[in-house]
Design brief:
Radius of gyration: 24 Å
Strand order of the largest sheet: 9-13-8-1-6-7-14
Structural class: alpha/beta
Strand content: 15-25%
Helix content: 25-40%
Oligomer: single chain
Largest sheet: 7 strands, parallel
Number of helices: 8
Shape: globular
Amino acid sequence: MRIVVCVKYVPDVQSHRRIESGTVVRGEEDSINDVDENAIEAAISAKENHGGEVIALSMGPAGAQGSVRRALQMGADRAIMVTDDALAGSDVIKTARVLAQAIEKISSEGEAVDLVLCGVASLDGMTSMLPTALATVLEWPCLGGASTFGIEEDGVTVSKFNDGFQDILSAPFPLVASVNDEVNQPRYPGFKQMMAAKKKQIETWDLANLPQGQQLADGDCAFTQVLEAHERPPRQSEHNIITDSGEAGKVLAQFLKDNGFAAGQEHINE
């Protein structure tokens, strides 16, 4: 079984991000997308139980190799980074097309890819669209948002929870599946695994390496455009802090009354 797990390098959610010339500055405090580690764990566990090969795949700038390096530390056999200046500004649709081309190239090199695993969403864009878009381009079935994940003889079975109901879904190989953070507990690589991963080479591909890379290079980088970007305005510093000495409830009620909060006015008057 050949499994490709798609991973992404994203800005740390706790880091300070800024905008310069309408573009978010990235790369200073980036890390692997959290839920992508759950996808890596699902792929590694599948290999341990059923055999095969796990290939980590990412698209991004040259400095984003930390994502696939983490996959190598956790036990992936191979890591591929697709990076090209022509891909700057790509959106989810363009990214799906590039990753699909890379997966087709991987399949052409040997055994076909049976399974593509992704995290359910990336913490930067939070669109949750990539797994479905990737499956659409590949023309494969997609099982999304899995809370449990199991390899069957000829496919995958997952379960997911929607509106209080549990859905159990199955699809045959080849397919794309995305997992959430409930599906497993990602392993933490030890020192030995980290040192071994340093010795593994990360393959770097540009668009010229892909089957239809020239078409991707000639086309628009994105099917959506960000016309404006503004930093979040600072919070207003004007506020009143009330030290409760038993009268805070009355003070709050009076504040609501004075500022036009009519709902429950009869109770405030009491």
